[in-house]
Amino acid sequence: MYKMDAMQTPQPKVSFKEQMHQAREDAILQSACRLLGEKAFDAMTMDDVANAVGIAKASLYKHFCSKEELCSAAMVQILGRVQAYLAGLPADMPPLEKLHALVRWSLERLLTNEMPLLPSRNSTLRAVLMANKDYLNGLVAVSDQIGEWITQAQAQGVISPTLPPLVVLYTLYARACDPVVSFLKEGGQYSDAEIVDLVVRTCFDGLAAR
């Protein structure tokens, strides 16, 4: 008796309506990410998101019932992008170079408002994120990968072994929302590429004369 192989089982077709729904949701998340980079959570409104996407606010609420839910989904999506970037780095790249690349990538996203500003400690978003399993799992996965590279770089003597790895990790995370970037950008004295180079240098080399 002939049995169809599981790999050959035809997949159900996605309806045009479902495709349009997903496309609109992707546009909503993309706009939310950008607005979180421009305004941060507390200043952003659902009206801002609806206007950015070009839809009615009522349509926005068909996808996300609150600003917290929307921004949580956006933050989960961003963590996914970070994980994809880390996974795409060459396996034979030295750990310090991987950390350099990560900070550089984060700064480039920050300059184009693609990297959300972190919510304040008393923000309602922070509490929602801490209760979001997908966000926490993504954060742990990213932190574990970066932490592994930090300890490898310390073992090689290219990052001070006297620094607790957690301090190094948080220092690298802080570059993704470093106000120095916007200060230099607004000053107009440096190009985006020069700003990235300067912040990477101060992050890894410090301020002491070499």
Automatic annotation (TrEMBL):
The keyword Transcription applies. Coiled coil: none annotated. Residues 22-82 form the HTH tetR-type domain. It comes from the Bacteria. Pfam families: TetR_N (PF00440). Residues 45-64 bind DNA. GO terms for molecular function: DNA-binding transcription factor activity; transcription cis-regulatory region binding. The keyword Nucleotide-binding does not apply. Keywords: DNA-binding, Transcription, Transcription regulation. PANTHER family: HTH-TYPE TRANSCRIPTIONAL REGULATOR BETI (PTHR30055:SF234), HTH-TYPE TRANSCRIPTIONAL REGULATOR RUTR (PTHR30055). This is TetR family transcriptional regulator. It comes from Acidovorax delafieldii. The lineage of its organism: Bacteria, Pseudomonadati, Pseudomonadota, Betaproteobacteria, Burkholderiales.
